[in-house]
Design goal:
With about 350 residues, this protein is mostly helical. The chain has a domain of about 35 residues. It has 15 helices and 4 strands. The protein has a two-stranded antiparallel ribbon with strand order 1-2. A two-stranded antiparallel sheet has the order 3-4. α4 runs parallel beside α7 and α6 runs parallel beside α10.
Amino acid sequence: KNGDCVHVFQTLPDNAVSNYAASLKDKGSLVPALYKVIRENYSDLLEPVCHQLFEFYRSGEPQLQRFTLQFLPELLWSLLSVSAARDPHTSGCIEALLLGIYNLEIVDKDGQSKILSFTVPSLSKPSVYHEPSTFGSMALTEGALSNHGLSRVVYSGPHLQRETFTAQNRFEVLTFLLLCYNAVLSYMTSTSLQSLCQLSSRVCICGYPRQQMRRYKGINARLTVTSEFLVQLITGIHYALCNGEVEVGSKALDDVLYRAQLELFPEALLVGNAIKSSLHGAALKSNNKEGARSIQVEITPTSSRISRNAVTSLSIRGHRWKRHGKTQASGNCHPRPTRYTVHTFSP
């Protein structure tokens, strides 16, 4: 019945695709049924489901693409678990789906390779992560900061098209797919965020002593990971933590940091510990699953006062000195000294 529901998509005219995409969220039994099919690697429905999900993504309709991406964590786990079990024949359709999404995302609408750019925040300009005023105690003036405030742009790409998964390119492709998933995190359902956290824990603890602590009885083989892959997992976990998935998100973050320590991955340790420190003492509510979604960021209140430590000889030159008193009348051999008042700044 659910298969017939999604199969209708192929017969729709172009002007009806948007309405059909919007109606998918009202089919309450559809998403759980698709999760069940993906988790059963030997299901006869897995191949037609993967084919239909790829048709959704290839349509270019944003709602249909997000509908497919919500299953990405579960698809990644199915692929990795089957690869660890060395039974690749059961994951052929999942590999085709993931490679298809990857090859669609690395090119633009004209078929040219995409080059993604990321601007690194500058200390001299405010961002959601910091305010320049917080560095006043370091005697950094606006002029000094501007000398070091050149924006740095990091580029990613072009990415090569892939026709099959190999040991060398597997995590390169999976990391890029997680990047696409994280770009639409605000549209993901609670079920999808929970699946992401479960994926993170399983990938990081399988084959290690913590697997017995977590009482996970899945595969026992150790899965190879990369630092970039863990960083993308942490990004999604951070969002899940701030939007209702506190328990499963906290376990996932601890498990990723546990694996990053074992592998000595500095990037994952830096990002993970920074998020853990920012969440320490924060009022995370486990029932905050409805309404607007966001990530909690601590913002320092702005102040009009200037710290004394931030006043240097360079900054003093820009202030006017008020002159009080008048010079003595001409003819006086000893004119009265002129008094000046230098304006100081309260700490």
